[in-house]
Design goal:
The protein has 330 residues and is mainly alpha-helical. The protein has three domains: 49 residues; 79 residues; 162 residues, Orthogonal Bundle (hpI Integrase, Chain A). It contains 14 helices and six strands. The strands form two sheets. Strands 1-2-3 form a three-stranded antiparallel beta sheet, covered by helices on one side. Strands 4-5-6 form a three-stranded antiparallel beta sheet. Strand 1 and strand 2 form a beta hairpin. Helix 6 runs antiparallel to helix 7.
Amino acid sequence: MATISKNQHGTFRVQVRRTGHPSITKSFKSRQDAEAWARMTESELDRGIYVDRSPADGIFFSSLIQRYLDEVSPSKKGYAQERTRLLKLKKVFTGFHVLKIENRHIAEYRDRRLRDGISSSSILNELSLISQVFEYAIKEWSLPIPDNPCKQIRKPKVSNARNRRLSYEEEHRLLLAAKHSKAPLLYSLIIIAIETGMRLGELLSLQWRYIDLEKRSAFLPETKNGSSRQVPLSTKSIEVLKTIEKRSHTDRVFWSWSSNDSVVNVWKRLCHKAQIENLHFHDLRHEATSRLAVKLTNILELSAVTGHKDLRMLKRYYHPKIEDLAMKIG
């Protein structure tokens, strides 16, 4: 039975009693809220599903984001990028009590971002981070949050599959411009990217101690999908690697860049100089995969080289030229 009393401060104190269960009390600013909470609590007690949510009372979602930033994010590979996103989300959800965030709040945020012209993939990353914070709070911090409000909302559709292939004429112009670039390793970086299909981050982290020129292999101890892999090196890759000067202060092969962003800036200038439009550095991975697929017809062998665990993702990267397929069928 629930009893509601108004105290001298004008708030309403609710007390719910059930046989075999400790009494439950909570205070509210309005009688309407007090009565609603009493009905909900009695119903949950009757059905045997009551959970004491007082440990989460008064906790703002922004404080959970900050805790996640302090305790979880620093151990992640993409910490810098995730930190930037989380700090933005912290500002957005300032003033939201964690127990009062509903599906509609997340949906409203999603729609507002779409109206602002933010890409679907970026919004998906943001929604994923919000969801991760809720999941971590529920499972690891044992906060009695009823559910994750991100699970029941519609996710924006992403249509970012690219089928950009590098024509032979474009490749000639690109490499010619790279040879005359002030960036000393740009030409070598592009060749290795096309020959191996390695991601930009993998190329920049590549170290001499993990390269065996005799066995024609490069070892990547950590990749985007969380596992290591061996990358076979073509004859052309070996020739290019032999021309790269080793530096005493670092074991990194491509020592002239410290981050992906620094390469992206150089890449934009290079494409402009070579008069090539709509070509991303990551498109070289598409190009490499398509070329390797001609030589490695066994898809398992191909995935071992490129590092794709999901063969559906591998299909997105394989874009054969129609003239090559015509030559195959005769």
